[in-house]
Write a structure and sequence with these properties.
Layout (H helix, E strand, L loop, with lengths): L3 E10 L6 E9 L6 E2 L1 E2 L5 E5 L13 E5 L1 E2 L6
Parallel strand pairs: 1-3
Antiparallel strand pairs: 1-2, 4-7, 5-6
Length: about 80
């Protein structure tokens, strides 16, 4: 079984009720210390849910996420 280690992470507070969102990016076989990322822009995290209804008996719902991060070092 493949091991995925946490490589990058970032947190932001939502505009709605101040909920904290955490984005984590893992890499196959990575062993090391995770690096903190900084979000960038006015809408750094966008989640799109597929419209397949809201059926209670469907435990997994497909979605897509886009993130915008700030790079402090070139090519990092």
């Amino acid at each position: 079984m493949a091991y995925f280690g946490l490589k990058y992470y970032a947190e932001m507070r939502s505009k709605y009720k101040g909920v904290i969102w955490r984005v984590e990016i893992a890499e196959r076989g990575f062993i090391g210390i995770a690096e903190h990322m900084d979000f960038s822009g006015s809408n750094p995290l966008k989640i799109t849910w597929e419209n397949r209804g809201d059926d209670f008996f469907v435990p997994v719902k497909a979605n897509e996420a886009s993130i915008t991060v700030m790079c402090h070092k070139n090519f990092h």
